[in-house]
Specification:
The chain is of the alpha/beta class. Helices cover 43% and strands 16% of the residues. The protein folds into two domains: 21-195, 3-Layer(aba) Sandwich (Rossmann fold); 216-334, CBS-domain (Roll), CATH 3.10.580.10. Strand 4, helix 6 (147-151) and strand 5 form a beta-alpha-beta unit.
């Protein structure tokens, strides 16, 4: 007689698995919300989106972005993203607006007000002020009809999507959608304005993001800082110039100022002899040195110096055959270009 196999109990879910399951559910719900937002651009939201861009493009002042609570945090980020991509913008807290900061809103501005419910009391004074002053009002909300949507010149009404919070209470999917729509506005405006990497660098001079758009002209040594010498001078003079300028080389120029060659530390070692100091520079220099244009990106210069068959540390910057500067790799590294 055979004994039936005992039924296997399901493996217990570990706390780590439970945590990861919750995270995956939240991300899935928010991803679904973003897909719904994208699809909504094919309908009425798309028309409102384009109308919003028209308002922003014709705004001669700044875009005043406002919101309360979680919407306020999103509004701050949208204002920052707009400003950094060529659309002047600032955040105004609705509570502070009621206590004097309405003075920050001026004719020529536009107001972008965020409210999930469309009925945020704290936005009332700002909305009334915009209407009184004939300042364009754009609403971003998940509810229409609503007080805010009805008052706005253009209402960006987000599609109804469940919050990722299992109780459906904490703003999660809704704020993610608002943030994404704000990014979409900034990107679309960036493309409308023809915002370039040069424009981006002007507004992002610090940090690694800005360093990617630094140009050779931003970092090079020019004028009297360039180590230059004539070909007929003695090597003793060249070494003095190299030591004074502290860039590890000296450029050799003819009477018209054109770059003929370069003398580096390596050239000194290769030509070491008792009569080195008495030799003319032209006998020691390496002719036809590598050069780059002043308008080139510094990152291009770093790649040029480090990816060569024989890497080098200093690069002459030449216009019309004449040196206008010299770039050392240490200048690039200090600026965060690598």
């Amino acid at each position: 007689m055979t004994t039936p196999n005992p039924r296997k109990e399901p493996a217990a879910i570990t706390p780590q698995q439970r945590d990861l399951d919750a995270a995956r559910r939240a991300l899935a719900v928010e991803a679904d919300g973003l897909r719904a937002l994208r699809d909504a651009l094919n309908g009425a939201l798309g028309l409102s989106f384009v109308a919003t861009l028209d308002i922003l493009e014709n705004t001669t002042g700044r875009v005043v972005v406002s919101g309360m609570g979680k919407s306020g945090h999103v509004a701050r980020k949208i204002a920052s993203t707009l400003a950094s991509t060529g659309t002047p913008a600032l955040f105004v807290h609705p509570g502070e607006a009621s206590h004097g900061d309405l003075g920050m809103v001026a004719p020529g501005d536009a107001v972008l007000a965020l409210s999930n419910s469309g009925a945020t009391d704290e936005l009332g004074d700002l909305v009334a002020y915009a209407k009184l002053r004939n300042i364009p009002l754009i609403a971003m909300t998940c509810r229409a009809p609503s007080v805010l949507a009805d008052a706005a010149n253009v209402a960006l009404v987000l599609p109804q999507s469940p919050e990722a919070c299992p109780m459906g209470l904490a703003p999660t999917t809704s704020t993610t959608a608002m943030l994404a729509l704000g990014d979409a506005l900034a990107v679309a405006m960036l493309e409308r304005r023809g915002f370039s990497p040069d424009n981006f660098h002007v507004l992002h001079p610090g940090g690694r993001l800005g360093s990617k758009f630094l140009r050779v002209s931003d970092l090079m040594h020019s004028g009297d800082a360039m180590p230059l010498i004539g070909p007929g001078r003695k090597m003793s003079d060249a070494i003095l110039v190299m030591t004074e300028k502290r860039l590890g080389c000296v450029g050799v120029v003819d009477a018209s100022g054109k770059l003929l060659g370069i003398v580096t530390d390596g050239d000194l070692r290769r030509n070491m002899s008792p009569d080195l100091l008495a030799k003319p520079v032209s006998q020691v220099m390496t002719p036809g040195p590598k050069t780059i244009r002043a308008s080139a990106l510094a990152a291009e210069a770093v790649g040029f110096m480090t990816n060569a068959e024989r890497p080098f540390t200093a690069l002459w910057v030449v216009e019309g055959g004449k040196p206008v500067g010299i770039l050392h790799i240490h200048d690039c590294l200090r600026a965060g270009v690598a």
